[in-house]
Amino acid sequence: MNFNIKEIFTVFMVLFAVIDIIGNIPIIIDLRKKFGHIESEKASIIAGVILILFLFVGQSLLNLIGIDVHSFAVAGAFILFFIALEMILGITLYKDNNEEGRNAHVFPLAFPLIAGPGSLTTLLSLRSEFNTENIIVAVLANVIVIYIVLKTSTKIERVIGPNGINIIRKIFGVVLLAISVKLFASNIKLLF
Questions:
Q1: Which one, of 104, 24, 17, 15, lies nearest residue 54 by Cα?
Q2: 27-36, 98-107, 110-119: segment of lowest average pLDDT
Q3: Which of 110, 112, 143, 188 pairs as cysteine with 48 (C-beta 3.0–4.6 A)?
Q4: Number of domain units in the chain
Q5: pLDDT for res 94
Q6: Distance (Å, whole) CA 181 – CA 23
């Protein structure tokens, strides 16, 4: 075991920026309104498991099914694009007929919002630079932060208020749209 605080902190900050759980607060609040209760523990644990599993088997899994990392990232960019459009325009593009009794702790919260294409492809690139045990510690630290944000999102909503949430939703919708365009642009040229 080669634990290194500097490596752990660096990986934590990179993943924290890519996951952007603070920026996802408006989406989390939207999901709470749409689906009702979100199980913060389950969402955090599932996202953590997805991230750690992908760290070990991601590249092999993508290769096995004939998908390269760039195709995966482009597909994820489309998902983020549509979520961003919903936030900006205040419309619902995806309507599940079985919404009642269903919660959003797996889709779209744990995947693709938290453990999405951005964070998964970032993990693959981090693996080539940092020790695996440091990446795992950084992922677990991010899972704790994710859990805290998910658990306190209703309190955050009360403090900010409906108008504040609406403004933040539009702003972060544009930011998410920009992230999806960047993810798309940086990966589509590598496909051809």
A1: 15
A2: 98-107
A3: 143
A4: 1
A5: 61
A6: 17
Give the pair of three-digit tokens for residue 172: 């972060």
Q: Write out the two tokens for 177.
A: 């749209």
User: What token pair was written down for 80?
Assistant: 């983020």
Domain residues for 173? 5-191
Q: With a threshold of 0.85, does the pTM exceed it? A: no
**Which of 74, 191, 87, 177 minimizes the C-alpha distance to 121?**
74
**The two structure tokens encoding residue 66:** 């004939």
The percentage of the chain sitting over the pLDDT mark of 90, rounded to a whole number, equals 29
**DSSP secondary structure of the chain:** ----HHHHHHHHHHHHHHH-TTTTHHHHHHHHHHHS---HHHHHHHHHHHHHHHHHHHHHHHHHTT--HHHHHHHHHHHHHHHHHHHHHT--S---TT-TT---IIIIIIIIIIS-HHHHHHHHHHHTTS-HHHHHHHHHHHHHHHHHHHHHHHHHHHHHHHHHHHHHHHHHHHHHHHHHHHHHHHHHHHH-
